[in-house]
Amino acid sequence: KAIKYIEEHPEVDNVLISGGDALLNTNKVIGRYLSGLSKISHLKFIRFGTRTPVVFPQRINGDSELVELYKKYSKIKAIYLVTQFNHPRELTEEAIAATDKMRHAGVPVLNQTVLLKGVNDNPDTLATLFNGLASNGISPYYLFQCRPVKGVKDLFAVPLLKSCSITDKTKAKLSGVAKRFKFAMSHVKGKIEIIGKIDKTRLIFKQHQAKSKSDINNLFAVDVDKDTYWLSDDLTG
């Protein structure tokens, strides 16, 4: 039904298969997605969201059939693997072997990191991570502000002022390839890029993605305090 819907809606020009975790589907299901979607001419590319290279690299390293599926369909339609390395220690030999297999199958690997208190909330750790990603052919794609999800926000959320400072100091340690990621939040109003500080308590944001096209690329500033870690739904702080 999903593939039929996309076929009938040419305004849909790309697809993200997520979940859960997209690679925890069976090869049969993944093959059905790839077969159906690769035939749709108005689709520019297909993305798969997964953390299996990080936490379950055996899913890729131990399954040549899966890799061959991606190799076959990447010749027909551009396919991207979007994963989530959050700390340099996750760049294990097994994880890099898994991403290498996907890259050699014609599937570029992008990475989204979540800024997490007590895990990676310092510039040295993030710089080591992003440099490690770039040196292994994995493109740093986003650094996300931790969502205010129940059971998570009180443990892992970093206040926005501190987040901006960490991001700026991290980028100062990186070369162009390693620092091309955007610092963003997935807000109810859309994906919002966090540009940085105007002064000690005022931050500037950019509406990176939005439901309404007229809102895309809008710049706005918000006053925050030292404990603010998210924007309210009306974007006033």
Structural class: alpha/beta
Taken from the alpha-carbon principal axes, the silhouette is globular
Low-confidence runs of at least 5 consecutive residues: none
Helicity level: 25-40%
For the biggest β-sheet, the strand order reads: 1-2-3-4-5-6-7-8-9
User: Helix and strand string, N-terminal first?
Assistant: HEHEHHHEHEHEHHEEEE
Largest sheet: 9 strands, mixed
- What fraction strand? 15-25%
Gap between N and C termini, in Å?
40 Å
Q: Give the number of DSSP strands.
A: 9
Rg over alpha carbons = 19 Å
Structure write-up:
The chain has 237 residues and is of the alpha/beta class. It contains nine helices and nine strands. Helix 7 (123-135) links the parallel strand 4 (109-115) and strand 5. It is globular and about 55 Å long.
